[in-house]
Amino acid sequence: VRYYFDWAATAIPDEESTHLEAGKIPFGNPSSLHKEGREARLMLEDARERAAKILNVRKEQLYWTSGASEANSIVLFSFFRRFLKTGGRLLVGKGEHPSVLENCKIIESLGCPVVYAGLNPEGSVSEENIKALLEKHSDINFVSLMAANNETGALTNVASAARLIREASRRKAHIHSDMVQSLGKIPPGEAGSPFDALESVDSASFSGHKIGAARGAGLLYLKRPLEVLVSGGGQEGGVRSGTENLAAICSFAASLERHCSKERAEKNYAAAEERMSFLITALKQNPACKIVPECRSPIDRRFSPYILQCSIKGLPGEAASRMLDDLGFAVSTGSACYSNKRGGKKRYVLAAMGIDEETAFNSIRISQGFSTTMEEIKQLIAALAALRDCIT
Ligand code: PLP
């Protein structure tokens, strides 16, 4: 038996949205004018309409991409193009996903100033910090803030931060939010919920495979069209050139409908919170385990109930995840994009929160999803207790 606790890296594919959809996909190129092309175009636009309905935006505001990494890149490099004309400065949280941070480094190396906002001990960028940075740098005209951190689950109230940024920057800043880890997971009324935040941002990114869709489709929400840096055949309104991955896109639309309506997000959230609360309560009783950050309580609305970071005393995260793998459990040591890389970069989120090196080194990420059961959580708790016995 395998127990999957790495949903933040990728969700277990939802059979209904992947295989069933795949059989119905016309092969034509959606940009072709013949019948085969028109059939594909019809399906592509239908998927866009279905996605727009769930996200409560206009379909003209949604652009299909290959994933959230590409959606983030499109927005950042579009900002860079604007910077070349008008100048300005970029403000970005230190805990953002590499698809934001690494591109910021490139933009910075090309001459655009970037301010990296530090994280508070809970793992988000505080509004006081944003305010202070906006006061210090009056030329900030782009801000990127993620809704839910992929390593710790720390939530940012994007809607509230956006209000503050609009006021402080006299409406000139473009506000972007990576909403990958909150789509379908954080319901309305909670910090980081896409339902509340989409209205207040200028752009946002989403990824299909994090909610059970086939890999290879992302969504970029743009309040208004923007000038991009990379061009080509002009698909997706010129925002993302390249033939659309129709199978993955239709699967994304199906997953959105199956898991991400307001009602589903509420139900999913309540169930995830119950399981997470049970897990945290148990781990707080395990003397070898330390919840990261320690201030996180079993029910804690500052965090996504889908993601938990926890450190095991005396056991490096990599060793713990390998031992757990042998026992049948898939967990990770942080962002999947970095877990294969050498070098000290991989725990940068924990470092930015002020977590000491040893705790960070011994940390693993446990993430659950829509179909995780309480029984699986109980098995994981037992496995972590067995790990403790191995090391003590
Ligand atoms: N942003 C966040 C917060 C993520 O967790 C991920 C996935 O690892 C991405 C962006 C990138 O998504 P994709 O795999 O669709 O490029």
Give the class from helix and strand content and strand pairing: alpha/beta
- Would you list the SSEs in sequence order as H and E? EHHEHEHEHEHEHEEHHEEHEHHEH
Q: List segments where confidence is low: pLDDT < 50 over at least 5 consecutive residues.
A: none
Q: Could you tell me the mean pLDDT?
A: 94
Ligands (ions, cofactors included): pyridoxal-5'-phosphate
Q: What is the strand content?
A: 5-15%
Query: Would you count the extended β strands for me?
Result: 12
What is the global morphology? globular
Largest sheet properties: 7 strands, mixed
Terminus-to-terminus distance:
27 Å
With strands numbered from the N-terminus, the spatial order across the biggest sheet is: 2-8-7-6-5-3-4
Roughly what percent helix?
Answer: 40-55%
Annotation field: number of helices: 13
What Rg do the Cα atoms give?
A: 21 Å
